[in-house]
Amino acid sequence: MKKKNRIRQRPSNVFVIAALAAAITLAAAPGLARADTFGVQLGGGFGEHDVNKLDLGLVWDPGINWWEMGGWHFSLVGEAHVDYWHPGNGTSRHDVYTFGVQPMVRFIKSAGAVRPFIEAGAGVRGLSRVTIKDGYSMGTAFQFTEIVGVGAQFGGHQQYQAGFRFQHVSNAGIKEPNPGINFSQLYLQYNF
After folding, report:
1. H-helix or E-strand containing 13?
2. Any domain includes 17
3. d(CA 80, CA 146)
4. 66-122 tens-digit pLDDT
5. Is residue 30 part of a domain?
């Protein structure tokens, strides 16, 4: 009887992100008490390599809250984004549009007129083109993104939100070149 050689593969980044999102969702299931909330987010920022961006996001808050402690709790929201990247200096510049989604986990104050939070998330982006300008290419149209930020929710019905985010976009080594790009961004959000 012959033994087959088996090659053990490490799980891909996509699998790890999906498993983490599923685990968070299952852990948060007891907090499904309130109705869904939807919001529109508008942001702008600057990035490395003289690339600026505008961002339009649609936000879905399904009311998944958990782990209340000391007047703060965790919350899970989903976001879909369309970005416009505009490179600055260079002889050959290409505007780029990105489309993507990511879940965001927030640690937010549970009550008060102003509710500060910290947030983090990871997701995927699709780029309309991989070459941004001379000598600067992202390698693939498929990219991953990681985001961390701070902000506050406020208003009579907590309908407004403002924040600052740091975002990293790269293809995680799927293909070379993989220079990645980092953005710093301010955003405003209105929740319906």
Report:
1. helix 13-28
2. no
3. 14
4. 999 999 999 999 999 999 999 987 667 789 999 999 999 999 999 999 999 999 999
5. no
